[in-house]
Amino acid sequence: MDSDWPEEDSRVDRLVRGLKDFILGHPERLRALHRWLNAVLRGAAIGFCLRGGLHVVSLAFALARSKRSKQRQTRQQSLWEKLTETGRYTAFLGALAGVFVGVDEGIAAIWGRTRTAAWRAFAAGLACGPTLLLTGSGSHNSLAIYVLLRGLVLLLGYSWILAPQTMPTAYINFLNYHGGKQLYHYQAVRELTTRNAQKLPPAPLKSLADTRHADFCRTRPCSFVHPDRGCNENLIAFLPAAYARALPVYLPVYFLPAILVHRRRLLDSKAGPEILAKVGLGALRSSAFLALYCAFAWRGACAGFQLTDSCTPVSIPATCWTGGLALFAEKKSRRMELALYVLSRAVESFALCLGQWGYVRQELLPGRLDVCMFSLATACILHCYSDAHGQHRDVFRSKYLNVLDFVLGSTGLELGSICHHPSTRDLLAPHIRRISSLARSLERISQDADMEEPDTPRGSFEAGISAFRVHTSMDESR
């Protein structure tokens, strides 16, 4: 039995040596390996920082809003869910970048860079689409359509109130929260709309049975949606609270990418304050958009209820379009992105509504349609990004192009021999040197303190500080 181990070890050693010789013995293969490693690390880092940063900010605001002990278990569950989601998105973006670079380099190595230049990135984009499965078992149709299309506020209002099952749970929770009402308010509006569509006489609503509106018996919901206030008064009172709810959404959305993309310029005395001012203004402006969007949508719905003296499946989508007027609060470069984002949500919801209404059979739709759409989306985007040696890169905005270059490689595109410059090691090297220098300085201070016996604690502290300064200056001079 023991005699078999050396033979097995020798086989493994031969395999390892063979792989090393195959990769390290060829400069082009070594470049491809370095590009793949850099892409995986950077993609994973972006997923961790963006998703994790959003959750950190949301948890901080949640803790600030509530200190009650009975919500401690709920917060712990929420923390675990957010950690899990952060890990999933870290794996998703790392795998997406790794699969794309791996397939891109593999095709180039097998069939040649010149022969495959026109379609290689398209094929690699198709291959990396299934990495979307790493984000969890739930479908991501809206994400896939958003990437593919890049509003239909009417259908959104209908789906939110009357068919919430046709939208992702997370998005429904988002709308419920920023709608500024209690859950029973939305349930009561849905119940009232269904009764009016069936032409039933006014009667108390089951959704309001345990509330102070249990005696409600009308055909329009204004009296329990904003009691003790008129519709216009409610619009004015709604805005400050809506703006406070919107700020935690957009602060991390603006500041985290700025830290990642402009990490060096932020430390500059001239460029740093200018960048922070633009980022802060953008966050404030987008928060105003979301607050106005919700306020105008409610006011439009109230206007429809007043005009028709009813609440029906037609009046809600026909009047919620007023929320789209808030788009003018955003800058022009953001308006198309927001419109396409809302369009992606609406298309997803409309497709599911068609199945619910019986116009399309559910078995005809693929089980994970979002993966198919996402694969096609990434293929189209990455085809424009790097196929034909990058001749179509001018269709991207500079900020998107900078992110793609940072993750997938920024130099050598015109030759088909892509690499990261600077590499991830080069980016981390200055920080590692600083940490090492600090560790050496602290070690020297500790050694000096052991050798000397100061008379007073004050003298020991001052001696330590002076020694730290001397050692730090010596390290910097080196």
TrEMBL record:
Keywords noted in UniProt: Membrane, Transmembrane, Transmembrane helix
UniProt key word Membrane: yes
Residues annotated as transmembrane: 39-64, 89-111, 117-136, 143-163
Keyword Transmembrane included in the entry's annotation: yes
Name of the protein in question: Transmembrane protein 135 N-terminal domain-containing protein
